Amino acid sequence: QGGTRCVSSAVFPVSAEVTVEFSLSPGQEPIVLRGRTAWFRLIPESEQYDLGIEFVDLPQKTKARLSTYIDRVKS
Known about the structure:
- This protein is of the alpha+beta class.
- The chain is built from one helix and four strands.
- A hairpin with a 6-residue loop joins strand 3 and strand 4.
- The longest helix has 15 residues.
């Protein structure tokens, strides 16, 4: 399916259901996805956490939109 890593000031236990919103470009509608935490860890010398989020029910159209954006950013 796919997933993302993000930073949070709150810890979420593994398998917690979360909603993730991506704003890819100004003026475009954001992408809102359902996900589940796959892992978390405290960022050293910080009060924040790295979270690994696995997407749940990622529609093909949304997956294609994310893929196009990532390819453009990598170039």
